Amino acid sequence: MSAALDPVDWLLFSLSRAFRSPLAVFVQIQGCVICLTLAIGWAFAAYVRNREINRMKDAMKCGNSFAFLCHDINELEHSNQVNLPRVTVVMPLKGFGEHNLHNWKSQITSLYGGPLEFLFVVESTEDPAYHAVSRLIRDFKDDVDAKIILAGLSTTCSQKIHNQLVGVERMHKDTKYVLFLDDDVMLHPGSIGALTAEMEKNPEIFIQTGYPLDLPSGSLGSYCIYEYHMPCSMGFATGGKTFFLWGGCMMMHADDFRRDNYGVVSGLRDGGYSDDMTLAAIAGAHKRLITSPPVAVFPHPLASDLSFSRYWNYLRKQTFVLESYISRVNWLMNRGLFSFHCYLSWGFVAPYFMAAVHIAAALQIYIKGYSYEETTCTTSGLLLASCLAICTLTELLSMWNLTRIEVQLCNMLSPEAPKLSLDYYNWSLV
């Protein structure tokens, strides 16, 4: 019977039959489950973000035109503002990218009403960021308390962590909270105030964090990064307690660094490679609270020249982070996370390959006029492919809805900034 088929067709139909084995069916059903799990996770994240949008709208209906800063307009009274705690913003810098200057301006033009200082920390004057930041500080010298610090070359940890620790050493003696920001974070005017308010409400918070909303530039690499970050965004859209931590935005108690509480300084300084992974491990080991408020979502414009090779290099670095650890338990967790990531990645990709084979086999039967008896083809393969297509469509709609809501939230949190829009997203690339 197989002699009547072309060699290529015979291989195609053989694969299609093999992909209807119990194990192959399990893999394809697992792909559907992964898609639906992502869809549910994004739907919950969209609910949390949308709830914050509705709260802001309700506040504006009640006459609070400054709802993007705080829900209760009475908090803007002078008697409240003068009692706000001092915050030091530490920004470890390296290099000068396409959007860095715009991001820095959004950070230093915060509308936080309490004492605020900004520390830009670079390795040396040879860093391209040094001259750009120096010009920025000169332009805003009468409006903000900002300075640039030379940290020197790191010898015991990553350069970013070294810059952060040098910044902490130089912060004001009365600083109550320290906020670490990356140069790719575009802050909203009320972001620092919102983070500080949460810290004041709940002193048990160890770290407050947020997460970026990627704005693809149009290149394939930028959409790959957008796709990579979207599943992670679910862990930061809880509206409260989370186990995840993003190093681009971390607010902590300054005294934790002054006293080296829980080993935060020594843990970072002595061999630390990834700031967020190290601090998340410390928080987990000491049962400390990490939270992510619903307003902590930040526009993240991606570089226009972000190629696929640069994305691949980024992915390799993200994987290498899992090779760093602070304890044996942390090492085991990172190994488990790496294995889980690999398993889910292949578990997500394999069903699409199988579905493509089923569809190709069905098309060959239709185009070349093979009989179903001749190829022993059944409809089960197409049924599985159809289920995967439906689950994928559900997943994409959920991702689109979350992106739409986060874009709307960012626009409300930064009313004076240029409006973000979904029109810039190429959904065929997505």
TrEMBL record:
Q: Mind telling me which residue stretches traverse the membrane in this protein?
A: 23-48, 343-367, 379-402
Q: Where in the cell is it found?
A: Membrane
Q: Which Gene3D superfamilies match?
A: Spore Coat Polysaccharide Biosynthesis Protein SpsA, Chain A (3.90.550.10)
Keywords attached to this Swiss-Prot or TrEMBL record, sorted alphabetically, are: Glycosyltransferase, Membrane, Transferase, Transmembrane, Transmembrane helix
EC number annotated for this UniProt entry: 2.4.1.80
Task: Tell me the SUPFAM superfamilies matching this sequence.
Answer: Nucleotide-diphospho-sugar transferases
Enzyme group, top EC level?
transferase
Q: Which family does it belong to?
A: Belongs to the glycosyltransferase 2 family.
Q: Which PANTHER family match?
A: CERAMIDE GLUCOSYLTRANSFERASE (PTHR12726:SF0)
Recorded protein name is ceramide glucosyltransferase
